[in-house]
Amino acid sequence: MSDVIYVLNGPNLNLLGLREPEIYGSESLRDVESLCRISAEKEGFSSNFFQSNAESALIDFLHQARENAVAIVMNPAAYAHTSVAILDALKCFYGPVAEVHISNIYKRESFRQHSYISSYVDCVIVGCGIRGYQIAIECLIDKLRNSP
Ligand code: CA2
Fold it and tell me: What is the pLDDT of residues 92-104, one digit of tens each?
């Protein structure tokens, strides 16, 4: 079995740390990538980190995950609130999936308070900053180890 956890990030997250630090903190996406790598490797897993501003590229990466990944962490960014296509692509993956939002989307504008993927994924982590990615990886590994 593969030991790779795919970590997907949606549009504009490449700008993390460069704007709106009061909402998203001051760490960069590179920092998130390191945090994910360290969190996975500490438990004997590896990570494959990806960011795109394009919905189709995220969907292609989810299809790739189907063949190669044991679990997925996804911050779909604004696509959480708009994309049935990303939900459909996630439904093709059979391992555990965690949704992460750096900010607490439930404290923000009403259009951010609905996510198409939340009712499908195994865990949802919001408002914990970039530590949410670490929590997600730990939670997914627990699920992998405890699933029959
Ligand atoms: O809180 C999150 O992680 C979000 O997924 C981030 C998305 C937003 O559309 C979601 O509602 C919540 C936005 C990502 C934009 O990231 C930026 C970060 C810094 C500067 C500019 C954009």
Answer: 999 999 999 999 9
Q: Residue 131 and residue 14: Cα distance in Å, rounded?
A: 17
- Determine contact, residues 1/67, Cβ cutoff 8 Å: no
Phi (first) and psi of residue 122, to 5 degrees? -85, -35
Q: Which of 36, 55, 60, 61 is nearest to 46 (CA)?
A: 36
> Does the annotation count 24 as an active-site position?
yes
Confirm whether pTM is higher than 0.85: yes
Any residues with Cβ below 6 Å from ligand 1, and which? Answer: 12-13, 15-16, 18-20, 24, 75, 77-78, 101-103, 105, 112
Q: Which amino acid is present at 63?
A: H
The pLDDT tens digits of the residues spanning 79-131 come to: 999 999 999 999 999 999 999 999 999 999 999 999 999 999 999 999 999 99
Tokens of 67: 């063949």
Q: Is there a contact between 47 and 5 (Cβ–Cβ < 8 Å)?
A: yes
